Amino acid sequence: MEPPVIRFTVDTPLPSGRMRVAATAHGVIWAAFHENDTEQMPEGLDLADPAAVDADRRARAVTQRLAAYFAGQWRKPSFELPIDWSLTSNLQRKVLHYLDATVPFGATITYGALAERCAGFDPEMARSGQAARLVGTIMATTPIAILIPAHRVVAADGLGGFGSGPDALPTKRWLLTLEGCIPPTLDWDGPEV
């Protein structure tokens, strides 16, 4: 019988290093790459042993999908993994669902455009810019990083933010370069794009 929650790490080529992931019987509930994101991680069984990760179907599916993505081999619109949305609020879930369903690999959308297209925001909030700022907060606090592509949401005048920590913007830049949204620089260390 599978444990109710498993927690495991996934090695990545990201400037931020490894990702920490948690999954329930319903799907991935949490994925983060910043060390300070661990306070949101659900309690559960830690799988540090690679053989144990390989034996757990949930961990194996996430690990394989992320490995293909980081190698430049997964270019589908979404990761096609089950998601457990129980750590998200109704509005956050609505915005993240819309983002995942409509902004595919290799595309970006601005905070304001996502707020406008996703609906659910008061028209006055949209006009004043409050809706765009709220979308920015939702992207910064998503409990399921990368698998739900908050990195594809950018500011109208540049990259925008990407959580906290010194490696946040370099990680966002790396992901957008991998997806072909930003041209690689001379120091690009990822797969051919």
TrEMBL record:
Keywords, ordered alphabetically: DNA damage
Keyword flag Signal: no
Keyword DNA damage on entry: yes
Source species of the chain: Actinospica acidithermotolerans
MF terms in GO: methylated-DNA-[protein]-cysteine S-methyltransferase activity
Stretches of the chain forming a coiled coil according to its record: none
InterPro entries: MethylDNA_cys_MeTrfase_DNA-bd, MethylDNA_cys_MeTrfase_DNAb, MGMT_N_sf, WH-like_DNA-bd_sf
Residues annotated as domain Methylated-DNA-[protein]-cysteine S-methyltransferase DNA binding: 91-180
PANTHER family noted in UniProt: METHYLATED-DNA--PROTEIN-CYSTEINE METHYLTRANSFERASE
Record protein name field: Methylated-DNA--protein-cysteine methyltransferase
Similarity comment: Belongs to the MGMT family.
Biological process (GO), any one: DNA repair
